[in-house]
Amino acid sequence: MGTLRVKLVRSPIDFPRDQKATLRALKLTKMNRERELPDNPSVRGMIRKVEHLVQIVEVKE
């Protein structure tokens, strides 16, 4: 499995508390912050929950 680069592109203001908690778990706390995360089912599930707030790019190694 590879890695995923996830970037917060939309503010979580006025979105449900569980989506904000998911962003905190992904360590995406500020706009335009990027994180490289392992590509596994748990991370994919968290990203799917907030996919309308983030931009996802698969990193090829």
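The above is record 1. Record 2 follows with the same two-line structure.
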Amino acid sequence: MKVAVIGGGPSGLVTLKFLLEAHKYFDIPPIDARLFESEEKIGGTFVWRIYEDAELVSSKYLTAFSDFRFSPTAPDFVTPEQYVQYLNDYASHFGLWNNIECSTRVEHVRRRGQGHNVCFVRKGGKPEEWQCDAVAICSGLNVTPNKFHMEGMENVPVVLHSSEVKVRGQFGHNSNVVILGAGETAMDIGYLAITAPTRSVSICHRGGFFCAPKVIPIPQIRGEKVVQTRPNKPSDCSVASLFDTAYTHPALQRSPLPWLVYDRWVKGMHMLISGTEEGPDQWVGHMSSERKHVDSIFMCKSDRALPYISDGHRSESWWNRKRTFMINVPKKDTKGRRIDVLTWPEKFDDQGAMVVKDDDGNTKRIVPDVIVLATGYRTSFPFLNAEYPGLGEADVRRIYSSHDVTVGFIGFVRPSLGAIPPLAELQAQLWILRLLEHEFKGAIPTIVDSNALEQYELDWKLQPRAGYDLSKTKGGVDHESYAYQLALDIGAAPRVSYVIGRGLKVCFTWAMGSNFNTKFRLVGPWKWKGAAEIMEGELFDVVKRSGGLVYLFSYTIAPLVLFGTLSIMLYLITAVFGLLTSAKSIVVKPFGTGKVRGKLGED
């Protein structure tokens, strides 16, 4: 069997790895897999679209692949350069280099019989072709910059897309910098600009933003300084999966109740420790109340610009002053520098000026010297023609079309709070499993591991609200629910009896930690003997951090008690109903009718 992998970022590498190792897990011949990467290095966007002082917004614990971890000495949040080195080490560790072809651009992929024909060109070479049985498309979300032109923008001296920003020096001196966009990249660039010798920095948004810091904030109590020997617990490691996704009754998990409760708790905690529902400590750039719900938005996990955004906007009300005295997140000294948050401009005049409004409705005229388009990227597949399904047709978990398993899209979902690489690993495992079932009929076991839960459906998509549907337009998912859904589909979510049998540390990490991919290598078709060791060591060490009493109660203890109680009650009700149904069937079956017979003459 031959498989082409297009793209040498994290998604492509992990897909290649599982293809090359599939024969170790299943009774099949080794797969002939080739990875085509157009650039001269692997790493994708982490090599070519980075900037000064950048670091990942997802922690090393969640971002790392299940069976290859970061060094214990690596910081909780690595830089892009460190992550690219990790990917190179991953390729070396699993012997992937002989199957990777860099500086090789895929010109087009066309159907040929039941398979595919890949046309590619090496640097300085001529077009070549390779016939294969399946294609994994891993070309990435952040490749083609989403540039646009607005009336009068040509009158602004410097217009850059965020992908072109590399260092602070590009902003110039004593300049007015305007950033169009309010996502994580916009926040990072806003921080670079405000810490450069600029005159002013403004961030323009269309519908607001919602910051969720990547490290759990520890509030000061009565102004006492918080003393920490190490950074606090990463936010993406803080969700207790027990009764959040794991072992939650399906009816409860698919109901609006969990999201309603989390929404209230998140906003309530932010209000308690910072005085605003957004944030914490986000006083401007608010979303509308109709849209502002944690089940429907992408949370902005870059918060380095937030002190400069909120400075001068914090409430001076009696209530907020009292609350601040009792409990508040630490406030950073911005040395008088501020970032203005403004509405989206409609046009620029012949002098390059724009007229916009701030959060208070005040009209401002700004003449920018530099505009940065932090407007993201467009997803495109120029090498595919109309014969092939697009992302919109990938109706099986947004990975492949139910009509054609031989074409997989790996790494094209966006988690609200989480990371793409670990989700891509689970996607690759599921797609390859289904592909092998298709290609090697009868050779792949279809019986689920006896230690794994049977498959059932979860609610894993972000919800549409106020005219926004990020699931449909951006592939938005809830990381925890989507990861667990894929694990259930694969047959890799272990039963509680199995987890308990693996010891206290494994059990604690499973129950109280987020859905780290290593959890789903304990059982199932991709079972790996090293999973328990990682859960007992590295992952146990981070999960056992409390994150602070306020956060521990709000995000862990309270949801665990509430949803655990409800789930147990629902399971009991289901069990009783099942017993009653079974008893009724025993009574009625001997009579050969669908009813229990009553008195003589009655139906």
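The CA atoms of residues 307 and 332 lie 6 Å apart.
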